[in-house]
Amino acid sequence: MDSETHVRQLGKIIGNLQSLEVALRAAIMQLDETVTSSLKIGALKVGDKVPEDPFTNYDSLGPTISKFNALVPNSSRIDRNPLVTLRDALAHGKPLSDKKEFPLTLIKFSKPDKAGQVTVEGIYLMTVEWFQEQIDLVQFALKKVGPYCG
Predict the structure, then answer these.
(1) Is the distance from CB of 65 to CB of 78 less than 8 angstroms?
(2) pLDDT tens digit string along 41-72?
(3) Which end of the chain has fewer CB atoms within 10 angstroms, the N or the C?
């Protein structure tokens, strides 16, 4: 794998994760009759105050998936664990290598404990196959959420 392929595949995963989060929020708006939104994207300015709703709340991916899952039948629920693990690894992991070639290894470390030690929480060799598995994982979730987005 070369650097361009690496960057392109990484971008696909990140873009798909962002699409999934927006789709989940749209589905929650459609499914939860207790929430409404009057958000006008084109009219927003920095500093504006807007009401909290499924689009504006500060929920991360995990709680957003949980809210979606609570509103849909079991057959439509998505497994949050692999998606949240992937998202956290990409957001907080370190792409490292002891060689000057690809693939890189993504390593996710914990926050330090009281003794100043960190735990290795995940090691992912970012091969073409790994990238495709992650893209497929997110695409599968997007297909489950899609029918609920209105």
Answers:
(1) yes
(2) 888 999 999 888 999 999 999 999 999 999 99
(3) C
